[in-house]
Amino acid sequence: MEIKTLSSFPGCPFNDTFETFFDTYNLKEDVECYQLLFCPYGTGTCFTDLYKIKFKSRVVILNVIDLMIDSLDNVAIDELKQFCEHYPEQNFIIFSLHLNLRKELSIPNLYLDTIIPTSYTERLQHCEKKEISNRWLVLNADTKVHKVMSVSYLLSKDYWNNGDITFNMSVPTLVKSDRYKNITKVPDHLKEDFSRGYERFKSEDFNHLKIRNFDLTDDRVANNYNVNLLPVYENIAVEIINGTMFFESTPVLSEKEVQSVYAKNFPIYMNGPGIVRELKKFTQIDIFDDIIDHSYDEIEDHFERLAAAIDRNEHLLDGSTNISELWNDNRQRFEDNCKIMDDLLYDQNKQKTINHQKIKQALKHFDVSVAS
Q1: pLDDT-derived band at 170, boundaries 50, 70, 90
Q2: Using CA atoms, how far apart are residues 171 and 154, in angstroms rounded to an integer?
């Protein structure tokens, strides 16, 4: 079977999952396999490029790094439906970092799942905590709407000064709120809080950490974490993780969730609904649900979910809990999580076991016989 790489992400080359799979198993029919960095902005592969391919096999695998989005930062649901409808004779298996995306799609010739697609060229280091404070952290490289809104809500609280926040304020908002297809309205009972916090955000009246911004042209994920973020993480143990996407009906996985594991922080996730459930299912990490109230996770209204994530965990944010003592009581659980993530990212045998099983399940879905 030929595997064609159409594009890739610098510093995160594709691993050899499909090479070893096709070397290990015999398929009763030819299957096409393409690997790509999906990007609608011209730096990777997009649907326009995929339409140029003359697919020949009944089953086509697309192994996608990053997220399948449109130019307005929405999950490309409509485009994906149109693509599959354009090729009624093909059955598409797409592996991406969208967790449980098939929940909202019912396309007969499409199967969706997530595998571990890349091999990091540099290891993410385990954070060695120093003197842990009662402060919390929110990292933001840009001013996407959901990141501004989550920080604004935090800044509306009496404990706003307990937080350390990063933002590249020179970057304009990438997408205006009215361009998100699935965004909900801000509930009336939250408007005053968001407005009050946003005024503080606009005036930069908060503890604005100045760290080097990630450079998409030159930086690598692991190096950025090891050099720029680790020093910030050493004295912090509670992190509000603003994910790459938020105004969707399913969550996405990115380096942000992974970095927090290696930072050994108690995580509060700002992502699509179900991020806690799906992250636990996919990685098997401990998400500390005996300490963190993750009941916000399944709330579909986006702003209600955002507010609940913060309000239901004020005990970790308002300074009333001795975070250093709490962290030390759970030190081994953080170490265990790092070991689990190391196995997923760097243990090739572990990767192959997980990935090969998922590929077999996908092929079975379209009645492709697989033999050893």
Answers
A1: confident
A2: 21
Helix axes 188-202, 145-155, angle to 10 degrees: 90
What percent of the chain clears pLDDT 70, i.e. is strictly above it? Answer: 97
Residue 145, amino acid: V
What pLDDT, on the 0 to 100 scale, is given for residue 214? Answer: 66
Where do the DSSP E strands lie in 133-260?
136-138, 163-165, 238-242
Q: Which residue has the tokens 């995929």?
A: 50
Span 114-157, pLDDT tens digits: 999 987 778 999 999 999 999 999 999 888 999 999 999 999 99
- Distance from the Cα of residue 229 to its chain's centroid: 17
Q: How many CB atoms lie within 10 A of CB 319?
A: 17
Adjacency order of strands within the sheet including 238-242: 163-165, 136-138, 238-242, 266-270
Q: Render pLDDT for 256-289 as a digit per residue (tens, 0 to 9).
A: 999 999 999 999 999 999 999 999 999 999 999 9
The CA distance from 260 to 83, in Å, is 35
Which residue type sits at 41? Y
Strands 26-27 and 370-371: antiparallel
Strands 238-242 and 136-138 turn out to be parallel
CA-closest candidate to residue 184, choices 22, 301, 10:
301
Tokens of 306: 């955002």
Question: What average pLDDT does range 37-44 have in this prediction?
Answer: 88
Distance CA 135, CA 327 (A): 13
